[in-house]
Write a structure and sequence with these properties.
Radius of gyration: 18 Å
GO molecular function: DNA-directed DNA polymerase activity
Order of helices and strands: HHHHHH
Number of helices: 6
Biased composition (Basic residues): 1-11
Largest sheet: none
Biased composition (Pro residues): 26-36
Structural class: mainly alpha
Distance between the termini: 44 Å
Strand content: under 5%
Pfam families: DNA_pol_delta_4
Shape: globular
Protein name: DNA polymerase delta subunit 4
Helix content: 25-40%
Low-confidence stretches: none
């Protein structure tokens, strides 16, 4: 249950349910004007355009409808991060620990597994920010699966894949 808002839009500790805490949200870091950002072509990434309406439609039909309910534990995540975490947990696209989400998507496409273009759009959004997480993910490399960051926090080493053998 999200915290109630006061008339001014600010939460107070008295508005929270017992055991509920507020997460610190911060805006995405702004690129420095002195350093030009490389384009997708310079990074070796495709230039894909997917509208917000297409992302919402994909999220509603491919994630929410099969689930049958809204994921309460993801209430503070943006829709793109929810899409990416769903992609991380789909075993049919290969392992999510080790390669970046972009490498995993590219590998799945090369193997003919038809990964969704909406997932690619969300991945490219993260790549354009150089993986700097936003909101509750600030400080985490969001180009990698969330599960991988959990394993790192728990002190378990992540598996390193030799992606040069993938011939992509």
């Amino acid at each position: 249950m999200p915290p109630r808002r006061t008339p001014k839009g600010k939460n107070t500790k008295s508005d929270l349910a017992p055991g509920q805490t507020l997460l610190p949200f911060q805006p995405a870091p702004k690129p420095s004007p002195s350093k030009p950002q490389p384009t997708f072509e310079e990074k070796g990434l495709p230039n894909v355009t997917v509208s917000l309406q297409q992302l919402k439609s994909y999220y509603n039909t491919q994630i929410l409808q099969p689930m049958g309910c809204t994921p309460v534990h993801q209430q503070y995540l943006c829709m793109q991060e929810k899409i990416l975490r769903n992609f991380d947990m789909q075993a049919k696209y290969g392992p999510c620990i080790g390669p970046t989400r972009w490498q995993r998507w590219k590998r799945a496409e090369a193997l003919g597994l038809d990964p969704p273009v909406e997932v690619l759009a969300a991945i490219l959004t993260e790549e354009s920010r150089d993986g700097a997480g936003v909101g509750s993910d600030l400080g985490r490399d969001s180009r990698r699966a969330y599960l991988e960051s959990l394993l790192t926090v728990w002190g378990l080493k992540s598996i390193e894949f030799d992606t040069s053998k993938w011939n992509l």
